[in-house]
Automatic annotation (TrEMBL):
The chain crosses the membrane at residues 27-43, 49-69, 186-208. Keywords: Membrane, Transmembrane, Transmembrane helix. This is YcxB-like protein domain-containing protein. The keyword Membrane applies. It comes from Enterococcus innesii. It comes from the Bacteria.
């Protein structure tokens, strides 16, 4: 449809910048990690085999991220082609993300943090671009149309917004439900990111050793 072509032509640069910024942050983090390991090897020359293995893994990840970084135009074009017949989704708003059902029956979750709404040339719809609610994903960006008037709220989030649950602001943070949810999220994060936590531990240790050696 004409409005889809006009929308993507007008916002293409913004979409591509959002896509690239996701990978740029990760490339920067990996670059810093590589420099710390190289500095540790140069100054202290300990755990050579382990650090060489870590360097190989990190360099491989960097090369992979660079290849994905360069696909910004291709990814945005794919969304434009997918919406030649506009895919209009009904959003449900949660505290930290939006969710909607895809055409194949799966549920897509898009983080609120970093997402943007773009007015469409079709005044009935809004074009949203945001990041999938996944820690590490090959293609993080999600671009889709939704009808603002059809958006729903998760019941618990709606009650919290309207302050109809009878609890004070602070009591909600210390409720059993909140505590149980926090424990579950921490446990899930630890299990899903053991390798990255191991690298973070090594990097902190190396950085401390380098500072002690220098000063």
């Amino acid at each position: 449809m004409d409005f889809v072509k006009e929308d993507f032509a007008y916002y293409r640069r913004s979409f591509e910048l959002m896509y690239r910024s996701y990978f740029r942050r990760r490339m920067l983090a990996i670059g810093v990690a590589i420099l710390i390991i190289l500095g540790y090897l140069f100054l202290l020359q300990e755990s050579l085999l382990l650090n060489i293995i870590l360097l190989v893994i990190l360099l491989g990840m960097m090369a992979w991220l660079v290849s994905l970084y360069q696909r910004a135009s291709e990814v945005v074009l794919a969304f434009e082609e997918e919406n030649q017949v506009p895919q209009i989704y009904q959003l449900t708003e949660f505290e930290d993300h939006y969710a909607f059902h895809m055409k194949d029956g799966t549920t897509m979750r898009v983080k609120k943090n970093g997402n943007r709404n773009f007015p469409s040339n079709n005044k009935q719809y809004t074009l949203m671009a945001g990041y999938k609610k996944v820690f590490f994903v090959r293609q993080p960006l999600m671009i889709f149309y939704y009808d603002l008037l059809e958006m729903k709220y998760d019941e618990a989030y709606r009650l919290k917004r309207n302050r109809q649950n009878g609890f004070s602001r602070w009591s909600r943070y210390f409720s059993f439900r909140s505590f149980k949810g926090s424990i579950g999220n921490v446990f899930q994060f630890l299990l899903g990111n053991i390798f990255f936590l191991f690298i973070a531990y090594r990097l902190i240790r190396y950085l401390i050793d380098i500072l002690l050696h220098v000063f």
